[in-house]
Design a protein that fits this description.
Blueprint lengths: L9 H12 L15 H17 L7 H19 L13 E8 L2 E11 L2 E10 L6 E7 L11 H12 L3 E5 L11 H4 L11 H18 L3 E11 L1 H12 L5 E5 L5 H8 L3 H4 L16 H8 L4 E6 L7 H17 L6 E6 L7 H16 L34 H14 L9 H5 L17 E9 L2 E8 L8 E6 L3 H5 L2 H8 L3 E5 L12 H10 L4 H17 L4 E6 L1 H12 L5 E7 L12 H7 L32 H7 L3 E5 L11 H5 L6 E4 L4 H14 L2
Parallel strand pairs: 4-5, 4-6, 6-7, 7-8, 8-9, 12-13, 12-14, 14-15, 15-16, 16-17
Antiparallel strand pairs: 1-2, 2-3, 3-5, 10-11, 11-13
Length: 691
């Protein structure tokens, strides 16, 4: 039944202003906060810069030693690899051997996880007498050729001729395990608390375990190197594992803020791989911490003079810090820097620098400077003789990885049924003062500051008379669509004021640099959708704090953000309606139809045309969320009545009622695969019962 109200409709404006102004930021500054994509990205970059600037770098050996256990614990948590089975049951098989002048290659296959085979090459000197030093070589992101890339072969060949053993293998999605950037980019693990770099670190440790087990290896003389993503992996493994006695990261990273800054216009390469996006990393570590965690073991930093992703001045800053902290250990000679005019890669001059460093510190030969490379003729990367799998039988890691992610998700249980929104979701940004003057118009545009340098636009629609409360509405298609939804129109007729909002990432606030946005959010330990929820709540605070409010959201993004806002809504939340959204984070992992497409492999050239259109957008996925809560707990947290309309599963299909019912908490109505007329009947009952 429609509730008629009386009184001056300006009363809502005055009360909202009073409530919105109480105890918040000084007037004027927040009111000038900008809107739009530039403002969203500037806000994110500013917070990343501040997080990194707040890190206190060790300056003495004692400070580095004291910080190392804490930093290692935090880094292991951010990577999540310790959630995977250990020790691994590798089941190593030798599948062939190549003998060449001065060296030989054992071709190996092992399994890091059930159904996840890994092809590897172990380079050995032609003749071995006694135990030999060994190098673990992680390939980085070279998709078709990977371990068989000719530059990488040249390094392994010459190190073997110098008396080293070298183990290298294909990373997932690459070489004989690819080619597919989508099979490499496995977001299914994120809800269960394993990052993509965590998968890389897990497989690196599996390889290190195998190397450690070889009787020919001198365990006191193990080094590690790799280029690009392999250089980054070298930084991380050396920082975590003292078994790596000597590290040579090549074009692997830079000062983190400089890397974040230069990758913004590039959209961080559309986030085709996520290995550099370690959750929460920049809250406690910059590249300088990797140096301090490695010190005083020998470290050579190799950089390219012109490198788009890793600015050379940032790498020099890292080296200058390295000289300082190694000097504090009395080990100034154990850190060095080499820059090559050649671009990103592992070209000859970079290899020569690495040869000399490994020779000095693992063989006590030479002074550590570059060692000249003799003429070397590696095989073509696609030579069938290099294959470990049968011809034309590349094998994706995706099926085995997803099976393991599903297993982890089944085993994980949140700590309890109740959640504390601030603990689970993070503390809200400091609310800003809303001091715009509202007119008497029943429809007007308002701009609400949500952070000191960011505002969101909204359409404010007011009913006749004193409002019953404020309905905050959002729609993936933008605030204009949210304002004309049958649900918002009915609420307006029933006396609710409506604020149709474009939170960051939607409508006027849409972001085209989503890869960069996801990367920086994850590095900060945030979920971008949680920030969107805070935008909705900031509008509630500005326009309707102290009165009852409600939430309506349509679309998979808006509904997800609104679920967070429901949990943080408190006792003022009267009701909510979520339309066309997800009901559980388990749907992000178990996607029987869509996952199959993500396992598809391509030819050496076709992989660049990978499509990601059926993936769950990566910026929707919170890291390690299932250990804290799932969406049903969010919907139950405030104790408000609600209605879920036509929810979807991880394959983007509308759920049937029996499937959806298991995820809907008590007190929440469900309308599955239904038309608007049937959904509106349930909505009217909800409005009536929430009066």
């Amino acid at each position: 039944m429609r509730r008629r109200t009386t009184g001056n409709d300006r009363g809502f404006s005055r009360r909202a202003l009073l409530v919105g102004a109480a105890g918040l930021a000084p007037a004027g500054r927040a009111a000038r906060a900008p809107v739009g994509e530039q403002a969203v990205l500037d806000n994110l970059e500013r917070r990343a810069r501040e997080a990194l600037a707040s890190i206190r770098h060790a300056r003495t050996a004692a400070e580095a030693d004291e910080a190392r256990p804490r930093l290692r614990r935090l880094l292991r948590e951010s990577l999540g690899f310790e959630k995977l089975p250990w020790p691994p049951e590798l089941g190593v098989r030798t599948v062939g051997e190549l003998r060449e002048r001065g060296y030989r290659i054992e071709k190996l296959v092992w399994e890091t996880l059930p159904g996840v085979p890994v092809p590897a090459h172990l380079y050995l000197p032609e003749k071995l007498s006694g135990k030999a030093p060994a190098i673990l070589f992680y390939t980085g992101h070279w998709w078709p050729d990977s371990k068989s890339r000719e530059n990488f072969q040249a390094f392994c060949i010459n190190m073997a001729r110098l008396g080293f053993m070298v183990l290298t293998f294909d990373a997932f999605g690459q070489g004989e395990r690819g080619v597919s950037r989508r099979d490499h980019r496995r977001t299914e693990f994120l809800p269960a608390g394993v990052s993509q770099q965590g998968l890389a670190e897990y497989e690196t440790r599996c390889a290190l375990e195998y190397l450690w087990s070889r009787p020919e290896v001198d365990r006191e003389r193990i080094g590690m190197t790799g280029a690009s993503g392999g250089g980054y992996n070298t930084w991380i493994t050396a920082a975590l594992d003292d078994r790596i006695r000597v590290a040579v990261p090549v074009v692997g990273t830079s000062d983190f803020y400089e890397q974040i800054h230069v990758c913004r216009p590039l959209d961080w390469y559309r986030a085709v791989e996520h290995c550099h996006f370690v959750p929460r990393l920049i809250r406690y570590a910059d590249n300088y911490e990797f140096v301090a965690m490695t010190a005083p073991r020998p470290l050579l930093i190799v950089a390219a003079l012109e490198d788009q992703s890793f600015p050379i001045e940032g790498v020099r800053k890292v080296y200058r810090y390295g000289r300082e902290i190694y000097g504090a250990y009395g080990a100034a000679g154990k850190v060095a820097f080499y820059q090559d005019p050649a671009p990103h890669g592992y070209q000859q001059k970079k290899r020569e620098a690495a040869y000399g460093w490994f020779l000095k510190w693992l063989m006590d030969r030479g002074a550590g400077g570059p060692f000249p490379e003799p003429a070397t003729e590696p095989r073509r990367w696609d030579d069938p003789a290099l294959r470990c799998f049968p011809p034309a039988e590349n094998r994706p890691a995706g099926p085995g990885f997803v099976a393991m992610a599903e297993r982890l998700a089944r085993e994980v249980r949140p700590a309890g049924r109740q959640i504390d929104p601030e603990t689970a979701l993070g503390a809200a940004p400091r609310r800003q003062r809303f001091d715009s003057k509202l007119s008497a118009a029943r429809r007007q545009r308002v701009t609400v500051p949500v952070e000191e340098d960011l505002a969101v636009p909204a359409l404010l629609l007011r009913p006749e008379g004193e409002p019953r409360g404020l309905l905050v509405a959002a729609d993936d298609r933008g605030k204009d669509e949210a304002a004309v939804s049958p649900f918002t129109r009915e609420a307006l007729r029933e006396g609710w004021a409506v604020a149709a909002v474009d939170p960051r990432g939607i409508g006027e606030m849409a972001v085209t640099k989503r890869g960069w946005m996801f990367a920086v959010s994850l590095l900060l330990g945030e979920n971008f959708v949680w920030r969107q929820a805070q935008d909705l709540l900031a509008v509630r605070d500005a326009l309707g704090r102290g009165r009852g409010f409600a939430l309506y959201a349509r679309g998979h993004n808006a509904a997800l953000a609104a679920a967070y806002a429901v949990a943080a809504g408190g006792q003022e939340l009267r009701w909510f309606v979520l339309q066309d959204g997800f009901l559980t984070y388990h749907a992000f992992i178990s996607r029987p139809a869509s996952a199959r497409a993500s396992f598809q492999l391509f030819g050496a050239e076709d992989f660049r045309r990978d499509v990601y259109d059926r993936e769950i957008p990566y910026h929707y996925v919170p890291f390690d969320v299932l250990r804290r809560f799932d969406l049903p707990q969010l919907l139950a947290a405030a104790g408000a009545r609600g209605l879920v309309v036509n929810p979807i599963d991880g394959d983007w299909r509308q759920m049937v009622e029996g499937e959806a019912r298991r995820w809907v908490p008590a007190g929440v109505e469900l309308a599955c695969r239904t038309g608007m007329a049937a959904a509106m009947q349930k909505f009217r009952r909800l409005l009536s019962s929430s009066a």
